[in-house]
Design goal:
This is AB hydrolase-1 domain-containing protein. It comes from Durusdinium trenchii. InterPro entries: AB_hydrolase_1 (IPR000073), AB_hydrolase_fold (IPR029058). The chain is of the alpha/beta class and 348 residues long. It has helices spanning 112-118, 143-155, 168-179, 207-224, 227-236, 239-249, 259-266, 274-283, 290-295, 320-331; strands at residues 2-3, 41-42, 73-77, 80-87, 95-99, 123-126, 161-166, 184-188, 304-307. It has a seven-stranded mixed sheet, sandwiched between helices. It has a two-stranded antiparallel sheet with strand order 1-2. β3 and β4 form a beta hairpin. The two termini are 13 Å apart.
């Protein structure tokens, strides 16, 4: 993997930057896109060069409040309203579809969208069903449901698509790729599942550890199915509380946690059905692990890029998933798996 100075992704600035990240002013209607993106990323499978290295004089034609690009529109998935933004780019480049993670929304990508748009990519970002400001119907939420949503969205585009997922958005992208093949996938700090229940599948656990983990997960289920969650949700879902938690997840760049990012997590919490979706995420089926997907025959020639923060405490790079992709990067062609998968565990 090739990473340029000043980049952070995944769970905030868990990836160490070689130089301080420069702030990006939110774009509003008629704003000129940044002349130089402070988030340069080199993709190895043909989706572009260093982001932000070329001046783009085109103005954003679609905008909403302080979102970096894209008029907010509604698209349909299974008869439900899904919030989406699109910023049009060059017809000669693949479209990029951004898939957020737990608690995320379009706002999570507020700095990446203008960076990609400045390089001429058509960028799509949407709130997963039940998350962000998308509709929150009474249904069974799962990695598979969201993967179906991604596949449904991609199938309506008439170009090659690169999926970019964060946290369990990375896992969702992997599952979607088994349904409809994209041009490639970029994964940022890939999660082991929709929740932590897949941890008991870890080969690193002995029987006693697995028993203790199962008991703890069972206790979490009881708490999240009880009125305790309702009381905790009301007291915790404030901008101040959320910002404090997010800063712990951005150890190398806590200043990245601004009001806009915190609001992007808090605002959806006030929408109808948000609490029940949270309850399901923590108590539901975790879905397949990345390792299980590969064991079942994930396409070995699909270009894959993995980017990981070496200080990510939520999904540590030395955990099962991080270790799996680290090994995958080492063995490459020897095992007949994606030779283009590149991973580095430390950025200095």
């Amino acid at each position: 993997m090739i990473l340029s100075p000043g980049v952070w992704f995944g769970h905030g600035a868990a990836i160490r930057t070689a130089q301080p990240a420069q702030p990006v002013a939110p774009l509003r209607c008629g704003s000129t896109l940044p002349t130089r993106c402070p988030w340069p990323l080199l993709w190895s499978f043909g989706v572009g060069g260093v982001l932000g290295s070329r001046r783009n004089q085109e103005r954003c034609r679609l905008c909403r409040r302080s979102l970096p690009a894209g008029k907010e529109v509604e698209v349909d998935f299974k008869g439900h309203r899904v919030r989406c933004v699109t910023c049009a780019g060059s017809v000669s480049k693949p479209d990029i579809v951004l898939v957020h993670g737990f608690g995320g929304s379009i706002e999570y990508w507020r700095r990446l969208i203008p960076a990609l748009s400045a390089e001429g990519y058509t960028v799509h970002a949407f709130d997963l069903l039940g998350l962000g400001l998308s509709e929150k119907p009474s249904t069974e939420y799962s990695i598979e449901l969201w993967a179906e949503q991604v596949t449904d969205f991609v199938s309506k585009l008439e170009k090659d698509v690169v999926l970019v997922g964060n946290s369990f958005g990375s896992l969702i992208s992997l599952v979607s790729a088994t349904q409809r093949r994209p041009k490639g996938i970029v994964m940022l700090n890939c999660a082991v599942g929709m929740n932590n229940k897949n941890m008991v599948k870890s080969p690193k656990m002995n029987d006693l550890q697995r028993l203790v983990a199962t008991l703890i997960l069972g206790l979490v289920d009881l708490i999240f199915r009880s009125p305790i969650l309702d009381m905790a949700f009301e007291s915790f879902a404030t901008k101040e509380q959320v910002a404090a938690v997010l800063k712990n997840l951005y150890p190398t760049n806590p200043s990245a946690v601004d009001d806009e990012l915190a609001e992007g997590f808090v605002r959806p919490a006030g929408t109808p059905g948000a609490l029940e979706v949270l309850r399901q995420i923590y108590t539901g089926d975790p879905g397949p692990t990345p390792m299980e997907l590969f064991a079942k025959g994930f396409p070995s020639d699909l270009p894959l890029k993995v980017i990981w923060g070496d200080q990510d405490n939520l999904t540590p790079i030395k955990g099962d998933v991080g270790s799996f992709f680290t090994e995958l990067a080492k063995v490459g062609k020897e095992l007949g798996v994606m030779p283009q998968a590149l991973l580095t565990s430390s950025f200095s």
